[in-house]
Write a structure and sequence with these properties.
heterodimer, A: about 475 residues, alpha/beta, eleven-stranded mixed β-sheet, 15 helices, B: about 100 residues, mainly alpha, two-stranded antiparallel ribbon, 3 helices, 2 strands
């Protein structure tokens, strides 16, 4: 059995009793990667030499028998848009194919302080723009459940690596669903925290008012511990929330009696695969049997969320990606005629088509004459979408629905039509626009592919989200299913 | 509103992107499709709605005006494509 199947407590106990060492955990990770990553292609860069050195140092620390935290010694993967000092960070773009960060992201530093070992950098859609990992400029990651299918995106590598047992957990980023949707497609747990809970310092920005870093794990308990390690105010991120961080593990009581669940009719209507709907309805029955109640509600502005998101996210992206000009870092084009030509050639050579498309869309939406009609209008609709949730949360504790309208699709199936690809995010996008937390957990399968349920909570109420997710897990077996590789 | 090839060229110039003829044509079609979809938002009357630029109340975050150490020059230049005399080198800006 893989040591990654052990619970956090079991790993901790075995490390303390010397039955297991950090070096052995790291060995297991690289061995599994060697066995599976030719097919899965979850990783862009491996950190083997440094990781083994760190493992040795951590094993020394163990010998000193000071108490260690829950994440001590765990091999972790980090999405390649989160900077890691001295370790190539590419955002899966040719523009940054040589970028060597001079600093660690806050989350990178926090994980290191918690004693985890960075195994490598995980594949993603370029600059986090995509929902299938097919927009990576290197290669497409495969779904461990069926290698002809996408793992989802943009944190496709992060989800696949956990599902394939290559790492104990990973970090991803979520702007419109990029942690939750791949978690659903790969049958694992993925959490997007409340906007501002986790520092964005060191996360290469895509859409600054939406981006959040979060954990991808094999179960809810692990997600709670990783969140504990990475959450918290950071002076280096001016959008960081200065709020008290609760003890998330304490929320995992197993008790959901009296929990009031809202189920938006817009999330179970047309366009949702009936097998996905059935899995979610069965999950609601499970919640009823545990003493929770649920009612149908309406989030009337749901149908405007995708258009709102793509205008806002693309606009913010067009501004954020202006820094990639070939001057200070990244790949610079040869023989430019002048400075502007340098910018043009470097960017055009470095960026893939989806990135260019979104920069174009965003630039247009912000340009003189169109700003009011597109960007400002979208910001106003964002207010209405957030208010829909505020109203529901006056009477309910959580909102539940599917994470995605379908299970994973085939590689290449949606590449020709960007708009179809965008519509996969219908369940996750409204949550991002409202800035509230949500988790995806496995709740079923269809034709051998996992189905994810999304549990959405009030701002900064990750505890209730985790409690509900954990209780479902404690009473079902979906989270124990593993792909055969 | 419909985007023309001229619009695409204008926007590409603003965005400092160089597009091939094939890309320009493809983007014209794709952007038109996306913007047509976005016109949905006009179904909503938002005259009395405040725009949301940030989901949660944020005020300007300041720090004390205290001098700190700057980046060591080796770090500044670590990823620079071209450098000279401790400076990042670029093509001439001024004619």
């Amino acid at each position: 059995m893989s040591p990654f199947e052990l619970s956090l407590q079991e790993v901790g106990a075995k490390l303390r009793s010397k039955e297991l060492s950090v070096t052995e955990l790291v060995d297991a990770s690289y061995k599994r990667i060697a066995q599976t990553d030719d097919t899965i292609k979850a990783f862009i860069t491996l950190n083997e030499q440094e990781a083994r050195k760190q493992a040795g140092e951590l094993d020394q620390k163990l010998a000193s028998s000071e108490a260690q935290g829950a994440l001590f010694g765990l091999p972790a993967g980090i999405k390649d848009n989160i900077v890691t000092e001295g370790l190539l960070t590419t955002c899966a773009s040719q523009f940054l194919n040589n970028y060597n960060p001079i600093y660690d992201a806050t989350v990178t530093r926090k994980l290191r302080d918690a004693g985890t070992v960075t195994i490598g950098k995980l594949n993603m859609d370029e600059f986090a723009m995509g929902g299938s990992n097919e927009n990576s400029s290197f290669y497409a990651t495969r779904n461990p459940w069926n290698s002809e299918y996408v793992p989802g995106g943009s944190s496709g590598g992060s989800a696949a690596a956990v599902a394939a047992g290559q790492v104990y957990f990973s970090l991803g980023s979520d702007t419109g669903g990029s942690i939750r949707q791949p978690a659903a497609y790969c049958g694992i747990v993925g959490l997007k925290p409340t906007y501002g809970l986790v520092s964005r310092f060191g996360l290469v920005a895509f859409a600054s008012s939406l981006d959040q870093i979060g954990p991808l794990t094999k179960n809810v308990e692990d997600a709670a511990h990783v969140l504990q390690a990475i959450a918290g105010y950071d002076a280096s991120d001016t959008t960081s929330a200065n709020v008290a961080i609760p003890n998330y593990s304490e929320a995992l009581t197993g008790d959901v009696k009296g929990l009031r669940i809202a189920v938006p009719k817009e999330y179970l209507g047309e366009g949702i695969d009936p097998r996905v709907k059935e899995a979610v309805m069965n999950a609601l029955k499970t919640y009823e049997s545990l003493g929770a109640t649920w009612e149908e509600v309406s989030l009337p502005h749901t149908e405007y969320a995708i258009a709102t998101y793509y205008l806002l996210a693309s606009s913010e992206a067009s501004s954020n990606l202006a820094r990639f000009d070939g001057v200070r870092y990244g790949v610079r084009a040869d023989n430019p005629e002048n400075l502007i030509d340098l910018y043009r050639k470097s960017r055009s050579q470095g960026f893939g088509p989806e990135v260019k498309r979104r920069i174009m869309l965003g630039t247009y939406a912000l340009s003189s004459g169109y700003y009011d009609a597109y960007y400002l209008k979208a910001q106003k609709v964002r207010t209405l979408i957030k208010q829909d949730f505020d109203q529901v949360f006056e009477k309910y504790d959580l909102v539940i629905g599917p994470t995605a309208p379908t299970t994973a699709f085939r590689i290449g199936e949606q590449v020709g039509d960007p708009l179809t690809m965008y519509l996969n995010d219908i369940c996750t996008i409204p949550v991002s626009l409202a800035g509230i937390p949500a988790i995806s957990i496995p709740c079923g399968q269809a034709d051998g592919l996992p189905i994810g349920m999304q549990i959405i909570g009030k701002a900064f109420d990750e505890s209730t989200v985790l409690r509900a997710a954990h209780a479902f897990e404690a009473n079902t077996e979906f989270h124990k299913q593993r792909p055969t590789l | 509103m419909s985007i023309t090839l001229k619009d695409v060229e204008h926007v590409a110039n603003l965005a400092r992107l160089e597009l091939s003829d094939a890309e320009k044509s493809q983007f014209t079609d794709q952007l038109n499709a996306i913007l047509k979809y976005a016109e949905k938002l006009n179904e909503l009357n938002t005259d009395d709605v405040e725009p949301t630029s940030h989901v949660f109340e944020l005020v300007n975050v300041m720090r004390e005006d205290v001098q700190k150490e700057s980046l060591p020059i080796e770090q500044v230049l670590l990823n620079a494509p071209d450098e000279e005399d401790d400076q990042i080198k670029v093509p001439a800006v001024i004619e």
